Amino acid sequence: MQHGVAVKRNLTLLRSAAKIVTVSQRGGLCRAPGDSQKTKDSMPRLHRLGILLSIIGAVILFAIAIPSLRSRAGGAQAKPQAAPKAETKSNEAEAFRNNTLGVAYMNQQKFAEAQKYFEKALAADPKFAIARLNLGISLLSQQKLEAARAALEEATRLLPKDPYAWYNLGLIYKDTGEPEKGIDAFQHVTQLSPEADAHYFLGYLYTQLQRYDEAIAEFQKAIAAFPYHASAEFGIARAYQRKGDSAAARQHLASFQKITTEHLGSPFGAGYGDQGRFSLAELGHSGVITAPPAIPVNFKEQPLVADPPRDPPKLPGPSTGACFFDYDGDVKPDLFLVSASNDGTSRLTPPHRKQSPITFCGVTTATAPSRIFPQKPDWESTPPARVSSLPISTMIARLISFSAAAAKARQST
């Protein structure tokens, strides 16, 4: 703005100078007869002066205009640089959104729709490697093995530390009959994650290659990682059988039957998500939305202050604790409520009876179990009147001692 004002000012000065030169060249309207010769002599001199002033004004104008032109050029360059940044951020957000929609369609078993959204994510951001991985998984789920293989091989190149990429590439090699490449892929998974599923597939591929000792070792690793791995139990039973160890085969086959019949685990299937956790599409992490910085928390040491003594002491209130035990020895549970009422009274309630609960009475001096509680209550009679309860800690301690004494009495008899 300031440069523009300066330019206008200099243009005005130049115009004024040009007017002066023009007037001086034209001469006055009223001249004396003797001045005509002087005027003719001064004409070339004034003409040269006007040219000189014009040149000086042009130089000044050019010197003032250069910084203005440079600032405008710099601003014009800065704007295109800011625009790609905003556009890149928008593309990343769009790619993440499409990838998330694709994962949702995969979970609904709509693999063709999921493929379209993974392709849209890659169109928005070709460097979004998670979308490349998920595209391969969607193609694998549609049995488009060659296209899936190309996508997953590219995903392992872009994501060498992602177990999802190597796991699904191993599934591709398993389905295309390339066990050696499948073993290499699943070994990458075992280096990245302690999951049992990769060890199972290693055992499966070693069995196909008739390398039964290595297969058994991998199946054992899978069972050690997850004891209810049904497919690993079945796989190791088959490996032992082919090796000639029928006894071990029967043992693991029995374990497989127990796991499946008792629903402790389920064997792998051929559908999407039925071949382990890593066979699922990966949601990924968005770098567009970041969490705010952590709130600073400072701890300050404070002295301990004891509560002043109260008279009467504060009661704990109702329902501060409860336990079940067989108080009357009828092999039925009885409920002991610590501080069952507002005034802190504890109560012993037989929940299998419909009568009102009796009061749990306190005893001041008692060592034998028969004197910790009052005489065996008659559940069919009216409960006795309430008596002051012992403190909760004392009551619980006597409950523990009563239980220990009762256990010793049973052992002695």
Describe this structure in words.
It is built from 13 helices and 4 strands. α2 (36-107) runs antiparallel to α3, α4 (129-141) packs antiparallel against α5 (145-158) and α5 (145-158) packs antiparallel against α6. It has 3 domains: 2-27 and 42-84; 112-279, Serine Threonine Protein Phosphatase 5, Tetratricopeptide repeat (Alpha Horseshoe); 321-412, no CATH class. β1 (321-325) and β2 (334-338) form a beta hairpin. The chain has a 4-stranded antiparallel beta sheet with strand order 1-2-3-4, with no helix packed on it. By secondary structure, the protein is mainly alpha-helical. The N and C termini lie far apart (108 Å). It is 60% helix and 4% strand. The radius of gyration is 46 Å and the shape is flat.
